[in-house]
Amino acid sequence: MRLVERAEKAPTDSKDTALLMRAGDVLQRGDYLPQDSLRAAEFYVRAWRAGNKYAAYKLVDVYRYLKDWRRTWFWENRSRNLDTDRRSHFSSDEISEIQRLASDSSRSNL
């Protein structure tokens, strides 16, 4: 109960995402408190806004549980787009090489 109360009072910023996620988990599972998916979703949305990308996956589960298919679809799309920055998988040398090749390729098409 105190955890959820702390999360309710916490600002929505990156240092509080773990607290917000844990409060959502407690409410979604019904640990120590009656299960409340709508309140859990509110905490997950706040965690998402604070920068926790994993919250999108949690929201998919909540809305699927609630059979809210529109919101399920919305958060499924959000969670699929989490890895859109593929550059992080490449070294800086690989990125430079890819950019060079793309530049050379575009010049040959002019």
Structure description:
This protein has 110 residues and is mainly alpha-helical. It has one domain. Helix content is 67%, strand content 0%. The protein has six helices and no strands. It has helices spanning 2-9, 17-29, 37-49, 55-65, 69-80, 92-108. The chain is elongated, with a radius of gyration of 20 Å. Mean pLDDT is 81; it is low at 105-110.
Structure summary:
The protein is mainly alpha-helical. The protein has 6 helices and no strands.
Using only C-alpha atoms, the radius of gyration works out to 20 Å
Mean pLDDT: 81
Describe the largest sheet. none
Helical fraction equals: 55-70%
State the end-to-end distance: 65 Å
- How many strand segments? 0
Order of helices and strands: HHHHHH
Q: How would the global form be characterised?
A: elongated
Q: How many separate domains make up the residues?
A: 1
The low-confidence parts are 105-110
- Count of helix runs: 6
Strand content of the residues, in percent?
Answer: under 5%
Q: Briefly note the structural class of the backbone.
A: mainly alpha
Strand-helix topology:
Layout: H1 2-9, H2 17-29, H3 37-49, H4 55-65, H5 69-80, H6 92-108
Helix pairs in contact: 1-2, 2-3, 3-4, 4-5
